[in-house]
């Protein structure tokens, strides 16, 4: 059937937007309406005569409203094939009237579970059963039944009513939208249930406590529905097209960023912004991270954000030119004034918030004022939108892993040398080992106090990474500490560190030659700590 007149509709909506427009036209056109609970009350208040579903079924709502539309007299009225005489005979035998349209929108499960106040019990009660069933039934029988799942469809539907009914093409389009609606709804619930079961959550502490020593597995399946959030001028290079995608509806991580000034963000800006924000979020004290090509070239913590920023920028001024900066505190006027010094150029500044005075300075004073992007971006829940998983694209698929976001426990560290670590270096060692976990492997971080002064990144041999980091640190390496993201396979790195005046070393340990490395550290008088946890990052 092409045109299907609309004489009787079933309406059950959580979102009451637009019901007033529907009510006016349905009443004027003499369309009969059946409904449930709150929707029926709203429609009656708008002057419609509404048939209660309980009257149709002869059965009251039960189980606190869990069961109300799940009845043959409802579903037969939606699913009947009107081109089959046998279906008409069944309807007549059982006293079933058909519905020409079903208007349903679902409980807002995604919005509800996004709130930290939403308990598991509340979330489970918000899993809509009858609604998706009605939608799927009408969509399946779209040859004869129209289905609406969003107030955005009401205007088109009302136009169809005015001309005498819905067309087959309209009903097909509505059915496609309906199945997409229920698919997204089921995806959201499935992902939440995986989190609830402990195989898809970014907050693993509670789950780990519940399962004890068991390893938390990764889900067999998980689904991300992505939407294009930001078209980009090009990718890493001008000949590559690119865009930024994020899970539908999410506001976590980069997807939740708010740009308040400057040119549009580029592909490389976003990659660097992600790297800088993730590292900044690992620090509790006021901290600043300077990133170039996804690797920190400067990082520091201090009592004042301005001092942290100054130390971070001073670590490698040459690399810091044209960099991305992220901080973990409100970006204040003092910090902005620090960046006004001659010779500095920043591509992006990211912070949880900006003081108005800082925005005023950065957008009016420096020569690069029109170019710098100021971005408000929280360092919280960075992996929540991807179900607690860190994803990396490879040819033909994705690699997925739990993120390396847990703080290292100092009580698990052990001194392996005869020489003791001076108390004054303990905090510096902790800082250095936090920095090295976000450098590209093979990775070495040389730090003085709580400032990065030299980094060796992405080298194919560890001794080359050490050499590169010490060259960056230059004479400042005397009395500094050195951190490695993985074990030293040979003593040669320790010998280089000793010649550069390194005062202490921290590394995971675990090499077959650990004993040789420890013996060399003892011979040159450098204290060394093993953490027993590797932090490779490719």
- Number of DSSP helices? 20
Main sheet attributes: strand count, strand direction, barrel closure: 6 strands, mixed
Q: CATH H-level name of the largest domain... which superfamily?
A: Methylglyoxal synthase-like domain
User: What Rg do the Cα atoms give?
Assistant: 31 Å
* Overall pLDDT: 87
Q: Give the CA-CA distance, first to last residue.
A: 59 Å
CATH class of the largest domain: Alpha Beta
What's the total count of β strands?
A: 21
Dominant shape: elongated
pLDDT < 50 runs, ≥5 residues:
200-215
- Tally of discrete structural domains: 3
Proportion of beta-strand residues: 15-25%
User: What share of residues is helical?
Assistant: 25-40%
Class derived from helix and strand content: alpha/beta
Architecture per CATH nomenclature, i.e. the level-2 architecture of the largest domain: 3-Layer(aba) Sandwich
| CATH fold name of the largest domain | Rossmann fold
Spatial strand arrangement across the major sheet: 8-13-12-11-9-10
């Amino acid at each position: 059937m092409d045109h299907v007149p609309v004489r009787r509709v079933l309406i059950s909506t959580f979102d009451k937007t637009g019901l007033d427009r529907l009510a006016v036209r349905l009443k004027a056109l003499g369309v009969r309406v059946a409904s449930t609970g709150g929707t029926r009350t709203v429609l009656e208040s708008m002057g419609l005569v509404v048939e209660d579903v309980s009257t149709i079924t002869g059965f009251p709502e039960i189980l606190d409203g869990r069961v109300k539309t799940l009845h043959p007299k409802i579903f037969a009225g939606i699913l009947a094939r009107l081109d089959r005489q046998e279906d008409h005979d069944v309807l007549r035998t059982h006293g079933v009237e058909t519905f020409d349209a079903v208007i349903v929108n679902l409980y807002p499960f995604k919005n509800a579970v996004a709130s930290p106040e939403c308990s598991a019990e509340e979330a489970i009660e918000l899993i809509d059963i009858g609604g998706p069933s009605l939608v799927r039934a009408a969509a399946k029988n779209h040859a004869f039944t129209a289905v609406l799942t969003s107030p955005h469809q009401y205007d088109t539907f009302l136009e169809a009513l005015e001309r005498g009914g819905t067309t087959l093409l309209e009903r097909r389009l509505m059915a496609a939208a309906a199945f997409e609606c229920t698919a997204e709804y089921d995806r959201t619930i499935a992902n939440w249930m995986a989190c609830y079961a402990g195989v898809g959550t970014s907050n693993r502490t509670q789950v780990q406590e519940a399962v004890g020593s068991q390893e938390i597995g990764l889900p067999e399946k998980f689904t991300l529905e992505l939407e294009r959030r930001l078209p980009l001028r090009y990718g890493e290079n001008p000949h590559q097209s690119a865009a930024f995608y994020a899970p539908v509806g999410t506001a976590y991580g980069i997807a939740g960023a708010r740009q308040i000034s400057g040119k549009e963000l580029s592909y490389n800006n976003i990659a660097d912004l992600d790297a800088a924000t993730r590292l900044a979020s690992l620090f509790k004290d006021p901290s600043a991270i300077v990133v170039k090509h996804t690797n920190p070239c400067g990082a520091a913590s201090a009592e004042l954000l301005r001092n942290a920023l100054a130390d971070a920028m001073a670590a490698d001024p040459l690399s810091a030119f044209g960099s991305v900066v992220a901080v973990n505190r409100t970006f204040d006027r003092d910090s902005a004034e620090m960046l006004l010094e001659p010779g500095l150029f920043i591509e992006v500044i990211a912070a949880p918030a900006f003081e108005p005075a800082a925005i005023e300075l950065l957008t009016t004073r420096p020569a690069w004022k029109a170019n710098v992007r100021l971005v408000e971006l929280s360092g919280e829940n960075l992996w929540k939108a991807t179900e607690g998983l860190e994803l990396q694209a490879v040819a033909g698929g994705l690699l997925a892993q739990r993120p390396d976001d847990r703080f290292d426990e100092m009580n698990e560290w052990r001194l392996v040398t005869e020489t003791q670590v001076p108390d004054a270096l303990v905090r510096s060692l902790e800082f250095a080992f936090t920095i090295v976990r976000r450098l590209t492997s093979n990775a070495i971080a040389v730090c003085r106090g709580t400032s990065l002064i030299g980094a060796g990144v992405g080298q194919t041999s560890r001794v080359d990474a050490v050499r590169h980091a010490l060259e960056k640190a230059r004479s400042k390496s005397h009395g500094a500490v050195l951190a490695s993201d993985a074990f030293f396979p040979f003593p040669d790195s320790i010998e280089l560190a000793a010649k550069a005046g390194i005062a202490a070393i921290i590394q995971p340990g675990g090499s077959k030659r650990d004993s040789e490395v420890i013996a060399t550290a003892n011979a040159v008088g450098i204290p060394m700590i093993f953490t027993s946890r590797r932090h490779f990052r490719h």
